[in-house]
Every structure is written in structure tokens, then in C-alpha cells.
Amino acid sequence: MVDSKNTNNKLRQLSIAVALTLPILLNGSYVTAAEVALSKSAQATSVLHPDSQLFTLHPAYSSDLATLTTEDKKRLGEIAKRFKDKIIFQVSVSGHTDSSIIRARSQGLYADNYVLSLSRAQNVADYLKLLLKLDASKIQVSGRGPDVPIATNATQKGRATNRRVELVIRAMDVIAPVAVKEPVKTEPVAVKNGFTLESAVKKALASNPDVFIQVNERRARNEEVERAKAGYLPTLDLNAGIGSERSRNASTRARGEEYRTLTRQEGSISARQMLFDGFATKNEVERQKARVSSTAYTVQGVAENTALDAAEAYLNLLRNDTLLKLAQENLEAHERSYDQIKIRSDAGVGRRADLEQISGRLALANSNLIAAQSNYDDGLTTYIRVIGEAPTGAPIKPEKLQEGMPTSKEDAINQAVEKHPTLKSAVSDVEAAMAQHRASRNTFYPRFDLELSQSWNNDLDGQLGTNNDGQAMVRMRYNLLNGGGDAARKRQTAHLIDEAKEVRNRTYRQVIETMRLSWNAYSATERQLVYLDQHVKATIRTRDAYQKQFNIGQRTLLDLLNAENELFQAKQSYISADFDNLFARYRIFNAEGKLLKTLNIALPEEAIIKKN
User: Fold this and answer.
1) pLDDT of residue 178
2) Any residues with CB less than 8 A from the CB of 498 and at least 6 apart, and which?
3) Which residue from 330, 397, 398, 391 is spatially nearest to 364, judged by alpha carbons?
4) In the prediction, which pLDDT does 61 show?
5) Most buried of 146, 205, 405, 455 (most Cβ within 10 A)?
6) Cβ atoms 146, 74 nearer than 8 A
7) pLDDT tens digit string along 229-285?
């Protein structure tokens, strides 16, 4: 006999399950009733930009204690309230101490400052874990000891400042979801407190050690020019002396004295003006000026390369942030599919194999999210190294540079050869070597000096009385033999010219190679983006069609999951190519030596050559 009541209940469950999976039109897009129900009853969430926030605590520690006070716990409570309605990815807690040695009575608890700082960080982490109800796997604790001071340890105030605990909390805000996710947009909207590529480049130039190394080299070369110019100017010397002199000469013997001792007193002043030195001073000044030009171009080249490194770090950070959001969206799409399959399975109308299959794909989506998060953190680390500090907000994607772009590869190469600062520096090095070679010929010429002198002497050479002399002389000095050293010096400087020319030739090839590679990357990604965009759009249409067909039983779950995965990979490829294309444009401007000019950022003053 058939149990009609039981049969009716099964039919009711079956009809509900089927109804939940049928597509309906909402806000111009097809969604399932199950998705609508889930978004209302379970408050399904979607994520805004994941954000890392840094908090620095200065608990009321004495030099070697780690216990939290009531005021410290109150401060941690205030921080925890800020994250009450946020999803927390990770909390990093690092403890820091001053450089004071652990007192003997405390060494039983803390062997050194590293153990003490770890204990302080652990106390903060334990209390924060309790407030935020966090799983232990989401908290990382480290003790840095005195390794990262932010103030001097020479004063009591500085030591108190260094005794601190730093928290980095990575969390995301929660908003109500839309019915269907729009395709990922690679053009982010500028957000409040966002920062630009230009600001990042300026910060890099203001703090990068490589730039300042060359800046100081340029300043030193300026002084070498002044030192060389001193050869044109007169010299002035003053001499004075007093002491006992014992004389034995014809004068003393004429007086019937074998020896005579007197107090010798002497003083003189002399001035010398170079009249002709075989063009040594002239060529040395020219050599040092050429070296100044070479260093100025080097400053420009280092500044340009630093700007390119900053642009790469900035764009990679933005790229990884975009890919992280894409991985989050991919995870949410799999979660929605999982919820649909779970409803069918629980209602008895779905296959167990489908639930296992979507569970595996959901696990893979979670793994992809973790990998994307790791890539973002690596990009952030590189950004801090290049820029010198962490970003102060959400990065804003710059517009693609088009104005000033070369019209062809040949045009790009010609501009690079004409304007690249490293090649100009190599040319200046050749000029410096040639001036040095000309200067080496000075020893083959006589030297003429105008010399003026006046001396005031008393009691010289055993004779009492004054002995004053004044001279005005033009003197010639001409070396006739120097063992072949001067000729060897001349040959040496000739070889140095050849060396400098070969360095220039090598630089010429490198400049052309760099421009060719940059142009090839730009040209290839320009063409790729057209097809990748078509791929993304076609895959979206395929995924949407498969979703509708799956809901009415015309597609398998495997078909739908494969379409979802292909869309995820298509978007990843488009995003990567889009950022590669953007960076290739910056590479081209860098290879031309005008990246900073294109970004409207001034060169360092030492990169500017002032014509005399």
C-alpha cells in the first residue's frame, strides 16, 4: 500500500529543489532562486579591497617586563572594535625592545631581548585572539628584539619609544552582494586616500641610495673642476725660521775662528704665476669637465632606472591586488555553485558525485586565493624595498601613456641612441680620456713661471748682520730625460681612449637591445590584448549559457565547472597582458631617457649640465 502522505512530502521536496535551480530574471540578469534565497537568509557576502592596517602599541613596560596593563588592554579593545564587522585574513604581531641588557633578576624569565620581545608580542596576540575570536592559524607572532629601532637608544625617551608591539591586521570590509557578479574590471576606480604612480616615483627618488651615491659623485666631480682651474691662478708662499747655526767656512776662518755659532733668523715671501705649462692645466680642466658631464648623465640614468623600478613595483602591486580580487570572485562563484549542488543533494534530487566534484573545485579555488594572497604580499615586500615605505592607500591604475610614443621600432631606436643618458655618459668618458691624453703631452714642453720673492735674513753663514734679497724672475724648467716614463704615460692614455671607445660601443649595443626588447613587449601585448579581450567576452557568454543549461538539466556539472575555470584563467591572462603592456610603455620611455619627463617629475639638480 502506498503512503500518500510520504509521497506528497517527497514530491514537495522535489518541486522545491527544482524551483530553486530554475533561472529567473532579476535586474536584467538570470539568477537562480537558490541564489536569491541564500543572499537573503545567509547574508552572503562579497569583498571589497583587502586592506592591511598597521598599529603601533607602546605598552607601559619597564625595561624587562612583558605584562599588559589595564590601559594596554583598553587600547587593544578599541582596536578590536574596528574589526568587529570585518573578515580578518591574518594578524601579524611583532615585539620590539630597546637595547638595554636584561637585568640579572629577570634573566631567569627572559634570556635576552629577543625572548622578551617575543613574550610581549605573544601576550598581545593572546589577548587580541580572545577579543576577535580568531583561530590560532590566523595569527603570526615574532620577536625582533632591538634589531629595528625607531628612535635612539641613548635617551630614556628613545628607549621607551623602541619598547613597542606592532600589529598588522589584514582584513576586508563586507557589503551586500549583487545578484550576479559583473566581469572583473581591470580599470579600478580611484578611491579616497589612493596614491598614484607619480607619488610613488617621487618617494623612490627622494630616498633611493643609488641616486644619492651618484649625486654625491657629481658634487665631488664639480670640486675636481675647481681644483683643476687652480692651475691658472698664482700661488703665494710664506716662509719663516729661527734657530742656532754653527758655521765653518772661509768667512769664519778669515776671522781666525774655526767655528762660529750664531742665531740664524730668516723669512721670505714668494709668489709664482704659471705662464705656460705645456697646456697641462687647460687639458686637465677639459678632462674634469667631461667627467662632470659623464657623472651628470649617470645621475640622470640612475634616476630614470629608479623611476622604472618604482613603476614596475607599483604596477606589480596593482596587478597582484587585481588578481587577488579575481581569485576572491572565483572563490565566491564556486561557493554559489556549491550551495546550489548542496541544496539539490539535501533534497535527494542531486548526485553525490556532483557534490564531491564541486567540493574539490571549491578547495582548488581556496588554494588559488591563498596563492594570490602570497603573490600580493611578495609584491608589497618588493614595493617597500624600492619605494622605501609601505603604500599609504589603494593604488590608482595610471592611464596608458600614448603621447610621445615612438611611431615605429626604428623611430624608437633612433630616439634611444640620440637621448639615452647612459650612452651620453659613455661619450663623455671618451672625451675625458682624450683630454687626459692631450694633458700627458705637457712633459714634452718647457714650463715657464713668473716668480716674485723677497727675503729678510739675519746672521747667516757665520756673518753678523742683515742679508735681504728681492727677486723678479721668469724661470724655465725643461726636463730632458725621464727614463722613458713620459712616453709610456702618453701611450697609456692612448690605450685608455681605445678602452673608453669600446665601452661606448658596448653601451650603444645595449641601448639598442633594451629598446628592441621593450618595443617587442609593447607590440606583442598590444596585439594579444585584442584576442584576450575576445576570449574573456566569449568565455563569459559560454559560462552564462552553461549555467542556464545546467539549471534545466542540459549540461553536466563538469561542463559548468570547466567553463568557470576557463573564465578565471582567461581573466588572469587578460589582466597580466594588460599590465605587461602598460609596463612596456614605461620601458620604452625609459630606454629613450625621458620617463621622468613624461611623468612630469623633475630630474635631480645634479643631473643637469650647466654650460659654462
Assistant:
1) 34
2) none
3) 330
4) 62
5) 205
6) no
7) 999 999 999 999 999 888 888 777 777 787 888 899 999 999 999 999 999 999 999
Grid coordinates standing for 576? Answer: 597580466
Q: Are 420 and 591 in contact (CB under 8 A)?
A: yes
| Residues in the chain where the model's pLDDT stays below 50 | 1-50, 174-193
Domain 49-172 belongs to what topology?
60s Ribosomal Protein L30; Chain: A; (3.30.1330)
CA distances from 290 to 315, 464, 502 (A): 37, 58, 17
Q: Which three cell numbers stand for residue 477?
A: 724648467
List the 139-143 sheet strands across, edge first: 51-57, 164-172, 87-96, 139-143
Question: What confidence score (pLDDT) does residue 142 get?
Answer: 86
Q: Topology of domain 211-315+404-607, per CATH?
A: Outer membrane efflux proteins (OEP) (1.20.1600)
DSSP letters, 133-191, are T--GGGEEEEE-TTSS-SS-SSSHHHHHHHSEEEEEEEEE-EEPPPSSPPPPPSSPPP-
The answer for residues whose C-beta is within 8 angstroms of residue 190's C-beta and 6 or more apart is 396
- pLDDT score of 38: 38
Query: How much is the pLDDT for 271?
Result: 95
Phi (first) and psi of residue 13, to 5 degrees = -60, -40
Instruction: Tell me the CA distances in angstroms from 101 to 83, 146, 155, 156, one per residue in order.
Output: 37, 10, 15, 14
Q: Which pLDDT belongs to residue 33?
A: 41
Which residues lie closer than 8 Å to 502 by C-beta, 6 or more apart?
none
Q: Is 24 in contact with 33 (CB distance < 8 Å)?
A: yes
